[in-house]
Amino acid sequence: MGHLEIVKILIEKKASIETSDHDGRTPFHISCSSGYEQVVEMLMQHNVNPNIADNGGNTALHISCTEKIVEILLEN
């Protein structure tokens, strides 16, 4: 089972898609920094807040500037 399938299940089960880890990173931050394009798109389709900053003050857009993910974020 891949990342996308796991995210689909979590969304179906009404899990919070904006829960953060000890560094303040959400699944959206991690998906952006890891290059998981399909997961990023799915989270965007489910109204994830792209403006949440981690403990370092970085949003997903900041984190993804070196990744192709930035194109997806700017399109939405």
Automatic annotation (TrEMBL):
PROSITE patterns: ANK_REP_REGION, ANK_REPEAT. SUPFAM superfamilies: Ankyrin repeat. Transmembrane segments: none annotated. ANK repeats lie at residues 23-55. SMART domains: ANK. Keywords: ANK repeat, Repeat. The keyword Nucleus does not apply. It comes from the Eukaryota. InterPro entries: Ankyrin_rpt, Ankyrin_rpt-contain_sf. This is Uncharacterized protein. It comes from Arcella intermedia.
